[in-house]
Structures are given as C-alpha cells and as structure tokens.
C-alpha cells in the first residue's frame, strides 16, 4: 500500500495516537535521509511524485518515537541503518543521464548565447553612439556648402588663373627661344634664304608650358 505525503502523515498520527505532527516535519526527515543517501523514497512513474509505503511508515514511527525521547536526527539516522532494510537508490540509466546532460548543455548554451547577444547589443549601441558623435564633429568642422554663385565665381577665377599662367609661360618660352642660336631657330628656304622654324618654335613653347604649368598654377591658386 502506498500513501501520498498528506495521507502518510495522517497514518503516522493514527499509528502513534498523536495529533501534533506537521507535514513539513515528516517531509524534512525523508528529504534528509535521501540527501545523506541513507534511504530512497519511491516515486510514481507518471508524475515522479514521492509515495510512501509500509517500510516508510515504520521508519517514520521510529524517528518520531526517538525524537520524543530527545534524540538528535544524526543519532536516529545512524540507528536506522542497523534497524531496517533500507531502500537503495536506483541506478540511473546511462541514456537518461546523457539526455539530462545534453539538456543541461543546451540550457547553458542558450543562456550563454542570450548573454552574448545582450553584450553585443550593448557594444553595438555604444559604438553607434560614438560613430554618431564623431560624424557630427566632422560635419561641424566642414565649411558651409557654397552657393551656385560662389561656385561660378570660383570656376571663373580658376579659368583666369590658368590663362594667366599659360600666357606667362608662353612669354617666357618665346624669350628663351629668341636667345637660341640661329641654326636652331632658322631653317633654309630654297638656296639662299632662311626663315624661322615655326614648327620647332611651337614645339619648344608647348614643352615649356607642359613642364611648368602644374607648379605655376598651384602657386597662382595658393595651393
């Protein structure tokens, strides 16, 4: 015969003819017996609920009588080991143990992933705020966008500067060309006449402008 805890306590009271016995007291006795691996309490297969039988009743009556005699629980438990054929603890099935272990690992992994996700979100939010601050700081240092009028004025000034540089370089090249020897500047036309070699002159001017234009323009624009 098996009893659930409430009926089991009532059975103890009837056996001892005592009314003062709390359910928590009895639960505590048998919980401690299991914790110290002295005696195992049977469970139902469906709900894994603890149920108590005749052996448990004898043990409970024994404990209560000794407690009435002011025995300590540790002394009573030592006595129980020799007084009763105690119920041994079931050997856990390896597969069940592995499944439980896997569930524990899954739970820990899930918990760990949640913690990591929370940490990543905090870091991302912090970095996003920092990037936003840096972006706003950069924008504050940039010059105000120019109007179309200002852009046209800027292009016009650049065009004038380019033309001025080209004119100066062309003038310099012509002066340099004029100082060259006649055999370099002139070419024969017929048997007795010479004239300026315009093709060579133009090439000389172009080379001079190409070599010096970039540096002169930068100086002109103050770059």
Structural account:
This protein has 223 residues and is mainly α. The protein folds into three domains: 5-83; 91-142; 148-221, no CATH class. It has helices at residues 5-16, 23-35, 54-68, 73-83, 94-141, 148-178, 182-185, 198-221, and strands spanning 42-43, 50-51, 186-189, 193-196. The strands form two sheets. Strands 1-2 form a two-stranded antiparallel ribbon. A two-stranded antiparallel sheet has the order 3-4. Strand 3 (186-189) and strand 4 form a beta hairpin. The model has no long low-confidence stretch (mean pLDDT 84).
Radius of gyration: 53 Å
Shape: rod-shaped
Uncertain runs: none
Number of structurally distinct domains: 3
Span between termini = 104 Å
How helical, in percent, are the residues? over 70%
Sheet/helix structural class? mainly alpha
Topology as H/E string? HHEEHHHHHEEH
Content of β-strand: 5-15%
Strand order of the largest sheet: 1-2
Number of strands: 4
The biggest sheet amounts to: 2 strands, antiparallel
- Quick check: average pLDDT? 84
Per DSSP, the total helix count is 8
In short:
It comes from Niallia endozanthoxylica. This protein has 223 residues and is mainly α. The chain has eight helices and four strands.
Question: Which keywords apply here?
Answer:
two-stranded antiparallel ribbon; 4 strands; mainly alpha; two-stranded antiparallel sheet; 223 residues; rod-shaped; 5% strand
């Amino acid at each position: 015969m098996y009893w659930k805890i409430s009926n089991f306590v009532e059975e103890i009271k009837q056996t001892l003819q005592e009314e003062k016995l709390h359910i928590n007291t009895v639960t505590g006795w048998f919980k401690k017996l299991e914790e110290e691996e002295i005696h195992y309490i049977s469970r139902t297969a469906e709900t894994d609920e603890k149920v108590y039988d005749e052996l448990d009743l004898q043990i409970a009556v024994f404990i209560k009588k000794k407690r009435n005699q002011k025995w300590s629980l540790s002394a009573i438990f030592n006595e129980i080991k020799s007084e009763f054929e105690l119920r041994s603890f079931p050997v856990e099935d390896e597969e069940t143990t592995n499944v439980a272990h896997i569930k524990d690992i899954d739970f820990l992994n899930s918990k760990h992933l949640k913690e990591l996700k929370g940490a990543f979100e905090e870091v991302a939010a912090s970095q996003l705020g920092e990037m936003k601050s840096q972006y706003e700081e950069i924008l504050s240092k940039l010059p105000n966008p120019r109007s179309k009028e200002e852009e046209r004025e800027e292009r016009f000034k650049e065009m004038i500067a380019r033309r001025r540089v080209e004119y100066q370089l062309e003038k310099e090249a012509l002066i340099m060309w004029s100082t060259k020897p006649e055999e370099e500047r002139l070419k024969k036309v017929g048997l007795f006449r010479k004239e300026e070699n315009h093709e060579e002159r133009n090439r000389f001017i172009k080379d001079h402008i190409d070599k010096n234009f970039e540096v002169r323009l930068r100086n002109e624009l103050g770059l």
